[in-house]
Structure formats: structure tokens, C-alpha cells
Design brief:
With 239 residues, this protein is of the alpha/beta class. The chain contains eleven helices and eight strands. It has a single domain (13-231), classed as P-loop containing nucleotide triphosphate hydrolases (Rossmann fold). 38% of the residues are buried.
Amino acid sequence: MSSAEISSPRALSVGIIAIDGPAGSGKSSVGKSVASQIGFRFLDTGLMYRATTWYAIKSGVDMHNPKAVTMVASEMEVSVHTGEAGENLIVVNGEDVTGFLHSTGVDDSVSFVSAISRIREMMVAEQRSLASEGKIVMVGRDIGTVVIPNAPLKIYLTASARTRAVRRHRDFVAAATAAERQKIDFEEILRSIEKRDLVDSSRTDSPLRPADDAVVLDTDGLILNQVVIRVVELARAGI
């Protein structure tokens, strides 16, 4: 099925699509593509936690002090905008910080920050407000279980840790300079993903797991467009 076919003008049976999954499962790429195909807004909620992490690091607080991180987070004014390619642009206190959100420092601390209950409460409230307008594809780790548990379509994307590490490695290499590519270590990426999986799935508040009524899609061996087609088909069917 071609891209032209999946964007044909047929009425959708759902107004909100929740896509969850572990790091590197492809949820952001799939979500953005699905939103583009069906004319919905797109929100990668993980960027909101990354923005909070970036701001806490910039503020110089102890990243393992929940009270300190929560205090600086309460000073943030975060807004989400849409770029020319449909991507999310994250603005913090008037500054576009999107380009800083995948730094090593943020990668190393975002799991801890996202596990802070008060941070999650603030983020979830904002995410629900955005979802209330409808016609949105929202991706994250607890969208179908916590943020929008009544979403009419919930998708859980998964893949083996090694497959996800291969994808991350490919993305990092594509974005790196020739000198930087020499320093990209696949095994380190794999270990980071396995560590993130453990932290996300074992945290007390909103652990990573599929919603009971989610459609679980294993993306091992699938290319992006195959997954996008399947999600759009589910949206058309109203499953």
C-alpha cells in the first residue's frame, strides 16, 4: 500500500491515538508520520520530560534531589510548537531548546526526572489539556495507561533491545560528524537502552507497560511505513 493510499479521505473513527513503547521502539517516528497522514496534531510527550531535565541541568541543581528538581520545574513555562516537517519544537521560557534535548547529559538523567511523581503530575495535567482539543496523536510511555486511559485507540510498539539499539545507533551515526562517528559505541547504546527499560518498567509511578486494551505491535523486522500503515488502518477501523 502506498502513502497516497493510506492518506485517502475517509472518515476516522477515533479522535485521539495514544502510542506508547520503550526507548527506540519507533513511537515518535511512527506517531509523527501517522499524524501527517491523517491530518492530526502530533505530540511527543517525552520531549516535555527532556525539557524539564535540560532546564534542571542548566539551573545547576542536584539531579538526584527530587525536591530541587521539582522546584526549578515549577519555574518553567513550556510551550509546544509544530515545525515545518511536523516535528515538535519545545520552547522553555521563550527559548527554543529542541536542539539540546537529546544531549548526553539529558539522556543520562531523564529517567530519574521522569520518575518524580510531582513532575509527572504537572506533565500529565498539561498533556491532558492538549489532548482535550482532540485530533491528536500522542506518544510516550504512559499515554494509554495514565494520561488518556479512555483513548479510543491505544497502540503499544515494541521490539527487542538489540533492534532498538541498532536504530538508535543508525540515527546517531546519521546525525554525527565524521569525527563524532568514531566515538559512537553500539554496545554502550545497547546498555543504555536496557538500563532505561529497567528504570521505566520498575518505577512506582506510571510504570511502562501496555494498556490492557492496547494493540501491541512488534516492530522487529518492519520498516517505518509498514507500521504507519497498520496504525492508520486501525484508526480507520475504529479499533
